[in-house]
UniProtKB/TrEMBL annotation, chain A:
<keyword id="KW-0732">Signal</keyword>
<protein>
    <submittedName>
        <fullName>Sugar ABC transporter substrate-binding protein</fullName>
    </submittedName>
</protein>
<dbReference type="InterPro" id="IPR050490">
    <property type="entry name" value="Bact_solute-bd_prot1"/>
</dbReference>
<feature type="signal peptide">
    <location>
        <begin position="1"/>
        <end position="24"/>
    </location>
</feature>
<dbReference type="InterPro" id="IPR006059">
    <property type="entry name" value="SBP"/>
</dbReference>
<dbReference type="Pfam" id="PF01547">
    <property type="entry name" value="SBP_bac_1"/>
</dbReference>
From TrEMBL, chain B:
<feature type="transmembrane region" description="Helical">
    <location>
        <begin position="172"/>
        <end position="196"/>
    </location>
</feature>
<feature type="transmembrane region" description="Helical">
    <location>
        <begin position="27"/>
        <end position="54"/>
    </location>
</feature>
<keyword id="KW-0472">Membrane</keyword>
<feature type="transmembrane region" description="Helical">
    <location>
        <begin position="279"/>
        <end position="299"/>
    </location>
</feature>
<keyword id="KW-0812">Transmembrane</keyword>
<feature type="transmembrane region" description="Helical">
    <location>
        <begin position="217"/>
        <end position="239"/>
    </location>
</feature>
<feature type="domain" description="ABC transmembrane type-1">
    <location>
        <begin position="87"/>
        <end position="298"/>
    </location>
</feature>
<dbReference type="InterPro" id="IPR000515">
    <property type="entry name" value="MetI-like"/>
</dbReference>
<comment type="similarity">
    <text>Belongs to the binding-protein-dependent transport system permease family.</text>
</comment>
Length: 435, 310
C-alpha cells in the first residue's frame, strides 16, 4: 500500500470532469481548529441539516445573522442546507467524495464513531473552551462521550432527544384498558403491561397497537429502545464482540417476535401505521416528534416502560461537526462556538434538548414546548436524559446495519427460530466486528 | 501550346478551389460533430477511464484516503460471496424481465394491431406508464403490494389470502419484475407495433391464398420480418434490466435478506453507504464488461436469427 500523493494530481485531473470528482487526497490525521484569522474577504459558511421545518430554519438563520453582524470581517453569510433525513448521511458522504464538503454538518449518532475516528472532522474542543462566556464545564460528560477521542471533541451534541412512549388515550380508553400514566404513577409501567394494552386496543379499534416508529423492519437499531429494558446490546462496548446471542438479547427479541406474531400487539412487516394520524394506540419515538400532535385525538406522553432489568432511558443524539476538508475550518469552529453558546443553546432547546446541565430544567424546556406540560417534560425529557444510553453506534455502522438487516429478515415470520436467526446474525457480523 | 496551358490554369484553380472547399467542408463537418464528440469524451470516455483508475485504489471518502491497491479490489470481487449473490439476483431479474417483457409486448402488439374499435384507447392505456415518473410509479406499487395493500385487499375479496409480496423471499423478486414489466412494456409494444405494421400485406395475402393458417403466417412471415425489432428490443431490455436501481431502492431496499440486491444496488451500497468507492468502481468495471459482452454476443449472433437488418 503506497500513500498516494503524487498520483492524486492525476486522479483529481481525471475526476475534475466526472460526476464524482476527487479533489482532496491525504491521510486521516486529525486536526485541531485554531483561532480564526481574518480572511482577505469575508467567507461564506454552509451547514447541512436534516430538518426542513421552516420555523427551525428561521431560528438557525437568526442566530447566524447575529454572528455575521458581530463578525463582518470573518463571515459574509451563513446558509443552512436541508437534506432529507432518509438520504442524509449518503448525501453528505457523496458531497465529501466530490470534494464539496460543507463547513459544518449535523451528524447522526449511529455514524458518530465512524466520523470521529476517520479524521474527517476537526477537534473543536479548544475553540469551544476558549470562547467567551461559553461555560464549557456546563456540558454533560455523558452527552459528549460519543463525540470524543483522545481528549479531543469532534462534534458538539446539540440534540439529545429522549425516546418516550406516546399514547392515544382515546383508543386505550375505548378499549377499557388502564391508562399508562396511572401505571407509571403506580410503578407498574412495564413492557408486559404495554404489550397487553397494545394487543387489546388493537383488537378493539381494528387499528394497530404499539408502533416502534421508523423501525419498519429495516431500521432495526430503533428496537434498542425496547431491548435496553432487558439490558441487551448488539455488540460489546468496545465494539469487537457480537452479543446478539446473549441470553438478554434472545429473550428481548423473542418478546418482540411474539408480541408481533402471537399477540398482534406490534404491526407485522409490510404494514404502515402512523400514530400521529391516529393509526395506532401507542408509539415509541423521540420527544421532538411532539410537534406532530394536534387536537384530533386525546394523547399523553410517558417514559419508556421497564423491562425485566428495569427502565433504561434511551436518547437519540445529533452532533454538529466541522469538516477538515472545507476551506475555513477555523472560522466554522468559531461560528459553532457562537451557535451553541448558553444563550443560543437556550433558543435551540425549543426543539433540541441541549447537553447543558443548567438548561435541562422543565422551566426552560416548558417555555419552548407549549404542547407539553411541565410534569411531562420533567418525567420524559429532564429525567429521560439522565443516565441515558444512546442508540447503537459503531465505526463500521453502515456495514453492520446492512449485515444485521439481511439476517434479521428471517426473524420476521411467525415460525422463525429466534435463537438460530440471532446466531446467524453473529456469524454475519463477526468478520466486520473483527476488522 | 497556349491552349492546353490556358485550359490547365482554370482546371488547377478549380482543383485548388475544390481542395479548399473540401477542407472547409471537413472543418464544417468536424464543427458539426464536435459537441457530440466532446460530450461523449467528457461524459462517457473520461468517466470510464476514471472509474477504471479508481478501481485500482482503496478510496475512503470519509477518511479522505486514496491509496494505490493494485488488483486488490478485483481479488476481493472473486472471493466476495455477497457479490456472487448479487450477480445471481441480477441474472434472475434480467431473465424474468426479458422473457416477460418481450413476450407480453409482442402479444399486446399483435392484439392491438387488429383493425378493431377501441385499439387506440388500449394502445394509449398500455403506453401511458412509460411517461409516468419511475419513482412515482414505484411508490404507488409499493402501497399496492404491501401486506394490507390494494392487491391483497382485492384477493381477499375473492376469498384468497395473498402473500406479503415485498417481504417474502419467494415473491419479492417477482413483484419487482412485474412492476418493471408494466412500467416499460408499452414502449416495447409500440416498437413491435411499428414493425408489425411494416410487414407487407401482400405477402400475408399470398400466404393466405396458399392456405397458410394464422399461426403459420405469424411464424413463417411475420416473425422473420420483425426479427430486427426483436433484436433491438432484446438488447434494450437486457441492458436496461442491468441498470435497475430505483425500483429496488423504493420497493425492497435489496431485501428480504439480499434476495433483490441486484448488481447496481450492491454497487450503490458499497460506494454510498459503506464509503468504499474503490471496490464500487471495480464492480462498475465488471458491470461495464458484462453489458459490453452481452451486447457484442447479441450483435455477433444476429445473423443466425435476424432475417433482415434495417
Amino acid at each position: 500500500m503506497i500513500p498516494l500523493t503524487r498520483r492524486c494530481g492525476l486522479a483529481a485531473g481525471l475526476a475534475a470532469v466526472t460526476a464524482v470528482g476527487l479533489t482532496a487526497c491525504g491521510s486521516g490525521d486529525q486536526e485541531v481548529a485554531g483561532e480564526p484569522e481574518a480572511p482577505a474577504e469575508p467567507v461564506s459558511l454552509t451547514m447541512t441539516v436534516w430538518t426542513a421545518d421552516e420555523g427551525q430554519l428561521a431560528m438557525f438563520q437568526s442566530i447566524a445573522d447575529a454572528y455575521v453582524a458581530e463578525n463582518p470581517d470573518l463571515v459574509a453569510e451563513v446558509s443552512f442546507e436541508a437534506i432529507p433525513f432518509e438520504d442524509y448521511t449518503t448525501s453528505l458522504t457523496t458531497r465529501l467524495a466530490g470534494g464539496n464538503a460543507p463547513d459544518l454538518a449535523w451528524i447522526l449518532e449511529s455514524y458518530a464513531p465512524e466520523f470521529v475516528q476517520s479524521g474527517a472532522l476537526v477537534d473543536v474542543g479548544p475553540t469551544l473552551q476558549a470562547a467567551d462566556g461559553y461555560d464549557y464545564d456546563d456540558l454533560l460528560d455523558s452527552s459528549l462521550s460519543l463525540w470524543q477521542q483522545d481528549d479531543g471533541l469532534f462534534a458538539y451534541p446539540f440534540s439529545n432527544s429522549p425516546f418516550a412512549m406516546f399514547v392515544n388515550t382515546d383508543q386505550i380508553e375505548a378499549a377499557g384498558q388502564p391508562s399508562p400514566a396511572d401505571l407509571v404513577a403506580a410503578d407498574e409501567w412495564t413492557y408486559e403491561a404495554a404489550r397487553e394494552i397494545a394487543a387489546a386496543t388493537a383488537e378493539e379499534s381494528g387499528k394497530q397497537g404499539l408502533v416502534v416508529r421508523d423501525f419498519e423492519y429495516q431500521v432495526w437499531e430503533n428496537l434498542s429502545t425496547i431491548w435496553e429494558g432487558w439490558g441487551a446490546a448488539p455488540w460489546s462496548e468496545d465494539g469487537t464482540q457480537c452479543t446478539f446471542t446473549d441470553p438478554e438479547m434472545v429473550e428481548a427479541m423473542t418478546w418482540i417476535h411474539d408480541a408481533t406474531f402471537v399477540d398482534g400487539a406490534l404491526p407485522g412487516p409490510g404494514t404502515t401505521a402512523d400514530f400521529f394520524a391516529g393509526d395506532a394506540a401507542m408509539t415509541i419515538t423521540q420527544i421532538s416528534r411532539a410537534s406532530s400532535l394536534d387536537e384530533s385525538f386525546g394523547w399523553d406522553v410517558v417514559p419508556l416502560p421497564a423491562g425485566p432489568e428495569g427502565r433504561q432511558n434511551v436518547i437519540g443524539q445529533a452532533g454538529i461537526g466541522v469538516f477538515a476538508q472545507a476551506e475555513n475550518p477555523d472560522v466554522a469552529a468559531d461560528f459553532l462556538a457562537w451557535f451553541t453558546n448558553p444563550e443560543n443553546a437556550e433558543q435551540l432547546a425549543a426543539n433540541f434538548p441541549p447537553p447543558r446541565e443548567s438548561l435541562l430544567t422543565s422551566e426552560v424546556l416548558g417555555a419552548a414546548n407549549p404542547l407539553l406540560s411541565e410534569e411531562q417534560l420533567q418525567a420524559v425529557v429532564v429525567e429521560g436524559i439522565q443516565d441515558a444510553v444512546t442508540k447503537p453506534a459503531h465505526p463500521s455502522f453502515a456495514r453492520l446495519q446492512e449485515a444485521v438487516r439481511i439476517e434479521l429478515d428471517s426473524l420476521w415470520s411467525a415460525d422463525a427460530d429466534v435463537e438460530q436467526v440471532l446466531g446467524d446474525v453473529c456469524t454475519a457480523i463477526d468478520p466486520v466486528l473483527a476488522d | 501550346m497556349s491552349t492546353p496551358l490556358a485550359t490547365a490554369e482554370p482546371r488547377q484553380r478549380t482543383l485548388r478551389r475544390r481542395g479548399s472547399a473540401t477542407r472547409r467542408d471537413h472543418l464544417v463537418g468536424y464543427a458539426m460533430i464536435a459537441p457530440q464528440v466532446l460530450g461523449a469524451v467528457a461524459f462517457v470516455l473520461v468517466p470510464l477511464i476514471a472509474v477504471a483508475w479508481y478501481s485500482l485504489h482503496e478510496w475512503n471518502v470519509l477518511a479522505n484516503t486514496f491509496v494505490f491497491a493494485g488488483a486488490d479490489n478485483y481479488d476481493r470481487m472473486l472471493s466476495d460471496p455477497a457479490l456472487r449473490d448479487s450477480l445471481m439476483a441480477s441474472l434472475v431479474f434480467s431473465i424474468g424481465l426479458v422473457v416477460l417483457n418481450v413476450s407480453l409486448a409482442l402479444l399486446l402488439a399483435v392484439l392491438l394491431n387488429q383493425k378493431l374499435p377501441g385499439t387506440t384507447t388500449f394502445r394509449t392505456f398500455f403506453f401511458s406508464p412509460v411517461v409516468v415518473s419511475l419513482v412515482a410509479w414505484t411508490i404507488v406499487w409499493s402501497f399496492l403490494l404491501q401486506d394490507d395493500g390494494g392487491i391483497n385487499g382485492f384477493l381477499a375479496s375473492l376469498g384468497v389470502e395473498g402473500p406479503n409480496w415485498l417481504r417474502n423471499e419467494g415473491t419479492a423478486m417477482l413483484a419487482v419484475i412485474v412492476v418493471q414489466v408494466f412500467k416499460n412494456v408499452g414502449l416495447n409494444m409500440i416498437l413491435f407495433l411499428a414493425a408489425l405494421q411494416s410487414v407487407p400485406e401482400e405477402i400475408q395475402e399470398a400466404a393466405r391464398i396458399d392456405g397458410a393458417g394464422a399461426w403459420r403466417r405469424f411464424r413463417s412471415i411475420v416473425l422473420p420480418l420483425i426479427s430486427p425489432t426483436i433484436l433491438l428490443v432484446s438488447i434494450l431490455t437486457i441492458v436496461g434490466s442491468l441498470e435497475v436501481f430505483a425500483q429496488i431502492a423504493v420497493l425492497t431496499g435489496g431485501g428480504p435478506g439480499n434476495s433483490t440486491t441486484v448488481l447496481v444496488y450492491f454497487l450503490y451500497q458499497q460506494a454510498f453507504r459503506f464509503n468504499d468507492f474503490g471496490y464500487a468502481s471495480a464492480i462498475s468495471v465488471l458491470l461495464f464488461v458484462i453489458v459490453l459482452a452481452l451486447t457484442l454476443i447479441q450483435w455477433q449472433t444476429r445473423k443466425r436469427w435476424v432475417f433482415d437488418e434495417v
